[in-house]
Amino acid sequence: MLPAPLAPEERDPNRDLQSNMDEFVTIATFDKTTEAHIAMGRLAAEGIQAVLFDDNMVQMDWLYAIALGGIKLRVTRGDETAARRILATDYSHDLDDVDVGKPET
Question: Of 39, 67, 73, whose CA–CA distance to 55 is shortest?
């Protein structure tokens, strides 16, 4: 038998919000919105859903970045390890053998 639902006056309005926030883990912080969106795009390309927190506040006034602790890139707990691995991977060596041709004059 299921427990009876709580009456509206017995519910904690912050409980649902808190439980949803606990599902996310901050894996990186950024001072610039552009860098945060690039990192979020790298995760999206690998199939990991990420969310940015405080990016709008930093866009309004970049000095807020210091007070807020930067723009936070967050993922679910289950994706934390994979997301950290993806962001730590350096792909720059893949460009060493790319033939970019001759510069146009």
Answer: 73
- Model's pTM, two decimal places? 0.67
Domains in the chain (CATH in brackets) are 23-90 (3.30.70)
Q: How far is CA 54 from CA 35, 58, 69, 92, in A?
A: 14, 6, 9, 29
pLDDT band at residue 105 under the 50/70/90 scheme? low
Closest CA to 29 of 49, 46, 54: 54
* Residue 21 predicted with pLDDT over 60: no
Beta bridge partners of 50: 75
